[in-house]
Design goal:
Length: 873
């Protein structure tokens, strides 16, 4: 006879087999995860945290928090409120362990993931494996819930239903915490039911603890708090000392709840206010939803085949009716069925009030409903099996085959989802098709509004290869512009296709058309269609598109025979119309480059590089910048400050007419005269040319260096005909400091953040009749500065001599050359700790060069240098 006074955690061997199966399915989905740094499509996506082509926004937010990069998220998300809490903190620990084991690469500068998108994909997959392991808690909790309060058979049925859900492998790679919060919430429900059945206070306290842990991850099962209060009131009424029992047990439960809730996610303390102000704003926006709440609920509840497959969908209504019957008819099952039914009703009310605007088009909001339905379905099947066995033994065997048949159709849907998940997406197939069938320069209309950013998370057409034309979300501008092709994206196969008399369908990609559909891109199953303009229609001039600028820039850069180099843009592209950024020319196109990976060496991230003149002119050749694309309006800072100060360093190449937000603008391309290639050389300076500031001695201790003084005397400049110097600064500070290196002809500012730093700063010596001085000031009203070391030496950059062969990309490089002086070979690649190098087959240390580039010391003679990263082999 079952012991009802305690909860049992035994697990049937078959359950372990099913769990292994579920884990294997998840690993299959993770191994082929799509949309994370896709090889197809344009890499840049400025709407994402890391500006990387990442399909799923919630997954990228979770991963950013786990990587400690949540500062750019919406206000309440950096606190972990309602997005993961302990799930994120534990995930951070898992990633750190994985890094120690050499499984992932964690960059301190997240912009480097833009340079190494496959490293980001590896981090994503590692985090997804961690999530998959935690996901195995769900079938265990379902089994324990059914086994303790109904039958062991119902527990096995529940685990099998969960294993067959086609929704799970498609959704869980998105890294969201929802189902984990539900699983822990169900542990609270399990203890609540046991508390109701035994009235033992310890179960109320355990329920409060599990509830606190669940809500610290996400407030998705907040309704279980209401059921806990109701059960406490009911048990208090049944107790002889009602008020005393209620106060004692309620106080203990409340203390445990708050303790677990805060300890599991300490950031809830500062995060609560911003979270609820955000929710209040969200509710206000949702109050004017265009679709009625009842209509939205019906639409979602009639689409549960997404969760369970086609057969279990039709079983939901009879299961709900039968569960109500069992609740009313059998007293021993009342707590179990009644609690789950009550939670379903409360969850529906909660979501209707809180997320009215998203009810109709966000499927995963009903994930908790689907999980709550599983034990009801399993218990109804188990009850039928037991009851029929007693009443009509001869046909009792029919129940199991019927259940297996329903499972079969669910597994069939799951296989279809897995097949789709492990193949190329429609978006990838479409982009691959146009690259193989369309000529560069073809105009492609995309369904976005005019003057908006056409490079969004969905439409990844390369604007440097094709003329991208915004034709409006309803294609209303297509007849006006008549682009060669129109890309049309439908969120599901049931959405309307494009119907324009001027265009014929040229290609269609709808591999996900057989999957269960909804209005939201659950499995990335959008239909991509390409329409071609009818040949009888006249071709319009290519100058009509406001987005011609990027194509014209790409065409100019492709004409340069050098295969790879960097480009700096200042308010000269539609991607970043008000900032300064780096791009890189590759053999295929122009791709974004992690600007901060270089610029962070001379300017702290809180005040990033905004103008060209904020970087010393020597930074551009050190960063491998061959061209500058800049705004040429008369008031442009590039014209007034950069060209006005160092115009001889730039050669005007070409001018383009462009439109920014409806306003005309002239954009110019300038060649950097100081450009030395992607690999260059600096001979070692003589000892007599170096000036090292010496620390003075006090009575007992050495004194730190002054924060101002002479850095490089005039006689050193004149004796060596020095045109540039390299400043080594070792500094410790608790605030941001502004380092000024100045002479009578040129003052350059460098920003250094808090902490201990050993930096190399380049400085261009302008026409000067005096020495070079330095000054270090805090940017705040107060702060401590300790200058440990400060020195300056000549920096004579030159082209690498006698190069026989050379190749360079973001992952590896090699060069074969002969030089006649000892010195350093510089690579125009951002320095990080994952570089390794060999000179003539011998491992050498890779050191940071001035302005954040990579430097390798060499002796005079013939050398072969091989540089590579320790990851992505």
């Amino acid at each position: 006879m079952k012991d009802t006074l305690r909860i049992h955690y035994n697990v049937h061997p078959l359950v372990w087999v099913v769990i292994v199966f579920v884990l294997a399915v998840q690993l299959m989905a993770i191994g082929k995860v799509r949309g994370v740094g896709d090889g197809e499509g344009y890499l840049l996506n400025t709407s994402r945290i890391f500006s990387l082509n990442t399909y799923e926004d919630d997954g990228s937010a979770n991963l950013a928090l786990a990587l400690g990069q949540g500062k750019n998220l919406p206000r309440y998300l950096p606190y972990g409120i309602d997005i993961g809490g302990p799930y994120i903190y534990l995930g951070r620990f898992v990633l750190l362990v994985a890094e120690r084991l050499g499984l992932v690469t964690l960059f301190s500068d997240p912009s480097l993931y833009l340079l190494y998108p496959d490293a980001y994909r590896t981090v994503w997959k590692t985090f997804a494996v961690y999530k998959a392991v935690l996901l195995m808690l769900v079938p265990l909790v379902l089994y324990w819930l059914c086994t303790n309060f109904f039958t062991k058979l119902s527990g096995i049925f529940a685990v099998l239903i969960f294993a067959a859900m086609p929704f799970v492998p498609g959704f869980e790679v998105r890294l969201k915490v929802d189902v984990l919060a539900v699983a822990v919430g169900l542990l609270s429900v399990m203890h609540q039911i046991q508390f109701l059945r035994t009235r033992q206070p310890r179960y109320c306290i355990f329920a409060a603890a599990w509830l606190g842990l669940s809500l610290s991850m996400k407030l998705i099962l907040i309704t279980t708090g209401l059921t806990l209060i109701c059960f406490l009131v009911y048990c208090s009424i049944k107790c002889a000392q009602r008020l005393r029992y209620f106060l004692r047990v309620g106080t203990q439960a409340a203390i445990v709840f708050l303790t677990v809730y805060v300890l599991a996610n300490p950031m809830v303390i500062p995060g609560w206010y911003v979270y609820f102000t955000s929710i209040a704003k969200h509710l206000g926006e949702n109050s004017n939803s265009s679709i009625g709440t009842l209509h939205a609920l019906w639409l979602r509840w009639s689409s549960f085949d997404i969760f369970f497959g086609p057969v279990f969908l039709w079983l939901i209504p009879p299961v709900l009716v039968f569960s109500i019957y069992l609740t009313c008819r059998f007293k021993e099952n009342r707590a179990f069925f009644g609690t789950l039914l009550s939670l379903l009703i409360l969850q529906t009310i909660y979501f209707s009030l809180s997320f009215r605007g998203a009810l109709a088009n966000t499927t995963y909001y009903y994930y908790s409903h689907a999980i709550l339905l599983i034990p009801l379905m399993a218990s109804c099947f188990a009850w039928l099996r037991i009851r029929v066995l007693k009443m009509i033994p001869s046909i009792a065997f029919v129940v199991i085959p019927l259940f297996c048949a329903a499972l079969f159709f669910s597994f069939k849907s799951q296989v279809a989802v897995l097949q789709y998940l492990t193949s190329r997406t429609d978006r990838q197939n479409f982009l691959h098709w146009i690259d193989n069938n369309l000529v560069p320069g073809a105009s492609i209309g995309v369904p976005v509004e005019r003057f908006s950013n056409v490079i969004d998370s969905l439409i990844r057409v390369d604007p440097f290869r094709y003329r991208v034309v915004p034709v409006g979300k309803d294609a209303s501008l297509a007849a006006q512009y008549l682009p060669d092709y129109i890309l049309w994206v439908r969120p599901s196969p049931v959405a309307k296709a494009l119907a324009l008399p001027e265009y014929d369908l040229a290609a269609c990609f709808n591999a996900g058309s057989e999957l269960p559909h909804n209005r939201y891109d659950l499995y990335q199953e959008e239909v991509f269609e390409l329409y071609a303009r009818k040949s009888s229609l006249p071709q319009k001039s290519p100058s009509f598109s406001p987005w011609n600028l990027e194509y014209d820039i790409g065409r100019f850069l492709r004409r340069d025979m050098e295969q790879q180099f960097n480009i700096m843009q200042f308010q000269g592209m539609h991607f970043y119309p008000i900032s300064l950024d780096l791009f890189r020319k590759t053999q295929q196109t122009i791709v974004p480059f992690p600007t901060q990976a270089f610029a962070g060496a001379v300017r702290y991230r809180t005040s990033p590089l905004t103008y060209v003149h904020q970087a010393d002119p020597l930074c551009l050749p050190l960063w491998g910048v061959k061209y500058v694309v800049a705004d040429m309006r008369p008031e442009s800072a590039f014209l007034t400050h950069t060209l006005g100060r160092s115009g001889k360093r730039f050669e005007f190449m070409q001018q383009f007419e462009a439109t920014f937000e409806g306003q005309p603008r002239k954009i110019g391309i300038f060649k950097n005269i100081d450009y030395l290639g992607q690999v260059f050389f600096a001979p070692e300076s003589l000892p007599r040319e170096r000036n090292t500031l010496q620390r003075t001695h006090g009575r007992f201790l050495e004194r730190p260096l002054k924060t101002y003084g002479t850095l490089y005397p005039q006689e050193f400049l004149l004796a060596g005909n020095v045109t540039a110097i390299e400043v080594r600064l070792v500094i410790e500070t608790d605030t941001t400091v502004d380092v000024l290196i100045k002479s009578s002809g040129h003052t350059q500012s460098y920003l250094i953040g808090p902490g201990y730093h050993d930096v190399l700063l380049p400085y261009t010596v302008a026409n000067s009749d005096g020495s070079i001085d330095y000054e270090i000031n805090t940017t705040a009203d107060s702060g401590n500065i300790i200058v440990h070391a400060l020195s300056a030496s000549p920096l004579r950059l030159q082209k690498l001599p006698n190069v026989d062969s050379c190749a360079i990309d973001s992952r590896q490089a090699f060069v074969h050359f002969t030089n006649f002086d000892s010195g350093r070979v510089f690579f125009a690649l951002p320095f990080h700790k994952y570089w390794v190098a060999e000179v003539d087959g011998q491992r050498v240390q890779v050191t940071p060069g001035p302005a954040g580039c990579v430097a390798i010391p060499v002796m005079a003679g013939e050398h072969f240098i091989a540089l590579r990263t320790t990851f992505l082999r």
